[in-house]
Amino acid sequence: MYPAPFTYFRASSVSEAVNLLVENPDAKLLAGGHSLIPAMKLRLSTPSALIDIRRIPELSGIREEGDRIVIGATTIYDDIMRNELVQRTLPILPEALNVVGDLQVRNMGTIGGSLAHADPAADLPAVVLALNAELKAVGPNGERTIPADQFFVDLFTTALEPTEVLTAISFPKPAPRTGMSYQKFANPASGYAVVGVAAVVTLGADGKVSAARVAVTGAGPYAVRRQAVENALIGQEPTADVIKQAASQASEGMTFNSDIFASEEYRAHLTRVLTERAVSRAVERARSA
Ligand SMILES: Cc1cc2nc3c(=O)[nH]c(=O)nc-3n(C[C@H](O)[C@H](O)[C@H](O)COP(=O)(O)OP(=O)(O)OC[C@H]3O[C@@H](n4cnc5c(N)ncnc54)[C@H](O)[C@@H]3O)c2cc1C
Fold it and tell me: What are phi and psi of 229, to 5 degrees?
């Protein structure tokens, strides 16, 4: 099906994009277009205008800013996966992006587009939660920083205002002896996450867990952290039994989706299994870091 008619704008700066959003209340920003255009073709989304932000130079690229790594919102997945700084410091990003869609999706999809879209089955929301990222947004009232913990609000809903542009994602550099892992059970047809779990674990000099962040995507309406699992790990020596016990709490108190692909019970089961795998792999990597 063809999309409903719309006006096309190409913004050359973030401020121009914000002004266009203010002037066109039904408009949508266009990044990689790999979620928005299919939705428009199905007429699930009928924006009056598209504001193309792909050619705004300041929105793209990866840079080091002191103790943080900052990735511009329109940076495509493939550029993130191939970046040496990201591979060395945030290896969970290439690990997760490697299982996103196919080559074409990875050459068009953008980190900002994925996070702003907040598809319940997207991979990156769990990863930015586990990495304790901050999201930078610019709107008519200037710039603000949104912690990843406050960004995902509901199904396809984020803390972004309709007139805000997500400009960058800022990650703290991990502490020494930190390991990380993303484990996904992919839908065999679409490749999206039926459930995906991201874990980032830091070990102290005594070999015990000094910090842990675990987040789940795909399972429920939006990606969430699993603090009960984190608390069960922190201060403990991460033996196989401790990790199993912690992971057994991963599905407690969660709301699970149920659809033709997986029941609530199956998603709850996958959440526990993938949490155990992600934490175990993160601990292994922390030990050899
Ligand atoms: C065949 C196929 C397979 C896929 N498989 C996977 C998968 O396995 N895992 C996965 O996670 N994803 C998958 N995707 C989705 C893909 O990752 C999309 O590219 C991504 O969800 C959206 O990014 P985009 O840059 O294409 O955004 P767009 O489609 O351009 O935009 C999506 C939404 O975000 C808004 N938006 C975009 N950028 C910004 C910004 N900077 N600020 C504010 N709002 C913004 C847009 O207005 C729109 O509402 C798949 C897509 C396809 C087509």
Answer: -65, -45
CA-based R_g, the chain, Å: 19
Tens digit of each residue's pLDDT (9 = 90 or more) over 115-147: 999 999 999 999 999 999 999 999 999 999 999
Q: Which atom of ligand 1 is nearest to the CA of 167?
A: 41
Do 93 and 113 lie in one domain? The reply is yes
- Whole-number Å distance, alpha carbon 211 to ligand 1 midpoint, is 31
Helix H, strand E, coil C: the string for 99-132 is CCCCHHHHHHCEHHHHHHHCCCCCCHHHHHHHCC
- Please give the tally of structural domains in the chain: 3
Return d(Cα 283, Cα 207) in angstroms, integer. Answer: 10
Cα of 110 from ligand 1 centre, angstroms: 7
CATH of the domain at 265: 3.30.390.50
Pocket-forming residues, ligand 1, beta carbon under 6 Å: 28-36, 38, 53, 73, 100-101, 105, 108-110, 112-114, 116-117, 119, 122-124, 160, 165-166, 190-192
126 CA to middle of ligand 1, Å? 15
- Report pLDDT for 60: 97
What's residue 256's pLDDT? 97
Q: Judge if 192 and 264 occupy the same domain.
A: yes
Residue 213 neighbours by CB distance under 10 Å? 23
One-letter identity of residue 114: S
Q: Which are the contacts of 10, defined by CB distance < 8 A and separation ≥ 6?
A: 51, 52, 55
pTM score of the predicted model: 0.98
Average pLDDT over residues 79-87: 98
Segments forming the whole domain that contains residue 259: 178-287
Long-range contacts from 265-268, C-beta under 8 angstroms, 24+ separation: 267/194, 267/195, 267/218, 267/219, 267/220, 268/219
Report CA(127)–ligand 1 centroid distance (Å): 15
